[in-house]
Write a structure and sequence with these properties.
Strand content: 25-35%
Strand order of the largest sheet: 2-1-3
Radius of gyration: 19 Å
Order of helices and strands: HEEHEEEHE
Number of helices: 3
Number of domains: 1
Distance between the termini: 40 Å
Structural class: alpha+beta
Shape: flat
Largest sheet: 3 strands, antiparallel
Helix content: 25-40%
Number of strands: 6
Length: about 120
């Protein structure tokens, strides 16, 4: 009986090593930005929309950071800003490349100058 437990224990240990513990409901993200300070923050794969927003605002680190895009399950998001961070564009799409392109286009709408992707990722 003891011999049959070793392979099971080994497989369980290997499973925990190969597959990090990510909560099954970690599917929300957010992008935050503060125009005055030119700062931004992002969060991905959070357990709730509220936690995603709070994390992005905390990551932004400025007093007037606001969520500019909330992302749901299996959504990709991107945030682009000008060099000084005073102009931004955010977007969410089903794939990363489309989100990045849309964020750049949204940022450049006001002819504010060249925009650069500052944050981009996808939720699980």
């Amino acid at each position: 009986m003891r011999r049959s437990l070793w392979p099971a224990a080994a497989l369980l240990t290997l499973g925990y090593t190969l597959f990090p513990a990510t909560p099954a409901f970690a599917e929300y993200g957010a992008l935050a930005w503060d125009r005055g300070a030119g700062k931004y923050g992002a969060s991905w794969n959070q357990q709730s929309s509220l936690l995603a927003s709070q994390t992005a605002i905390r990551d932004c680190g400025a007093s007037r950071c606001r969520v500019v895009s909330a992302l749901g399950p299996k959504m990709c998001g991107a945030l682009a800003t000008t060099e000084d961070g005073k102009h931004a564009g955010a977007a969410k799409r089903k794939d990363s490349a489309a989100a990045r392109l849309a964020a750049l286009k949204n940022c450049e709408k006001n002819n504010a100058g060249a925009c650069v992707i500052r944050a981009a990722n996808c939720n699980k």
